Amino acid sequence: MFSFFTFVLMESNRQKRVSRLIQKDLGEIFQVESRNWFSNVMITVTKVNVTADLSLARVYLSVFGNDANEVLAVVETNKNAIRKMLGDRIKNQLRKTPELRFFIDDSLDYIENIENLLKE
Predict the structure, then answer these.
(1) How many CA atoms lie within 13 A of 117 on its CB side?
(2) Mean pLDDT of all residues in the chain?
(3) Does residue 6 carry a pLDDT above 60?
(4) What mean pLDDT comes out for the span 104-116?
(5) Where does 1-120 show beta strands of DSSP type E?
(6) Are 38 and 73 in contact (CB under 8 A)?
């Protein structure tokens, strides 16, 4: 019974491959398009989690140079255009482009906070 639950919680190799593919292509999209949407902002796709049925991708973004919540709001308003650009890039690998949900990755802030606390 334990092995069944372990298997359910683990990502399959296909999910991992699709996650890496989406992360790479979204990174390139943000590298090009962020110049049009923002000035002096760098957006990095730090992690992508894909559901088992490949219908939803949770995309974690790290933002440098501006307020992350403002950047997330602009990304959310352009979500359909981003999904279209992603679909054009991955159309030969996937039948359907997953729905995208964007989140701010605050792990770097958390690490920095821990380091500052340890220095004191």
Answers:
(1) 6
(2) 86
(3) no
(4) 77
(5) 42-50, 56-64, 99-104
(6) no
Q: 2-119 — its CATH code?
A: 3.30.300.20
Q: Which has the closest alpha carbon to 104: 37, 40, 29, 47?
A: 47
Q: Indicate whether 112 pLDDT > 90.
A: no
Nearest to 83 by CA among 57, 105, 60, 61: 57
In the chain, where the domains are located: 2-119
Q: What is the mean pLDDT of residues 110-116?
A: 76
Q: Do 80 and 101 meet the contact criterion of CB atoms below 8 Å apart?
A: no
The vertex-80 CA angle with 101 and 12, nearest 5°, equals 40
Please give the Cα distance from 42 to 65 (Å, whole number). 7
Q: What is the rounded average pLDDT of the residues 100-116?
A: 81
Q: What is the pLDDT of residue 9?
A: 59
Q: Torsions phi, psi of 61, nearest 5?
A: -115, 140
